[in-house]
């Protein structure tokens, strides 16, 4: 019999039978992540499909600094009307279905900002009144200004 310290002999407990390898261990050549399509969609695919159906296609190109008129749906009792909200876009955030713009306007001497989700059913329409010429992505500095200092130069090349 061979001793345990002899490196030339093999331990019978470590020997592998070729017939049991095929049955017990998975195939090594198979990919790690297998996607099986059985007619059902995965949760992520369902969410992406739903979001794609909710996206609005008639939105104009909106940039920070633009003066926009947003038509907001207002429900009063059983009646519904569209109220315009006009102001300067001071910020854009997110993308896709969650895309938002922050619109600032001066109402009775007080600055009012509203955040609109562009693809929301409450936003009836968005119209760009004039293009603004700015050099920043966020125009939060307009919050500190009053009167004519809040004006943004007009851009004519877009």
Explain the overall architecture.
The structure is a single chain. With 158 residues, this protein is mostly beta strands. It contains two helices and five strands. The chain has helices spanning 18-24, 43-54; strands at 67-76, 79-93, 100-107, 110-117, 123-130. The chain has a five-stranded antiparallel sheet, with no helix packed on it. A hairpin with a 6-residue loop joins strand 2 (79-93) and strand 3 (100-107). It is extended, with a radius of gyration of 31 Å. The relative contact order is 0.16.
Write the layout of secondary structure elements.
Blueprint: H1 18-24, H2 43-54, E1 67-76, E2 79-93, E3 100-107, E4 110-117, E5 123-130
Antiparallel strand pairs: 1-2, 1-5, 2-3, 3-4
- Average residue pLDDT: 86
Q: Write the element-wise H/E pattern from the N-terminal end onward.
A: HHEEEEE
Strands across the major sheet, in which order? 4-3-2-1-5
Terminal residue distance: 90 Å
Outline type: extended
Spans of 5+ residues with little confidence (pLDDT < 50)? Answer: none
Radius of gyration: 31 Å
Number of helices: 2
Report strand %.
25-35%
Structural class: mainly beta
Largest sheet: 5 strands, antiparallel
Q: What percent of the residues sit in helical stretches (DSSP H or I)?
A: 10-25%
- The strand count comes to 5
* Assembly context of the chains: single chain
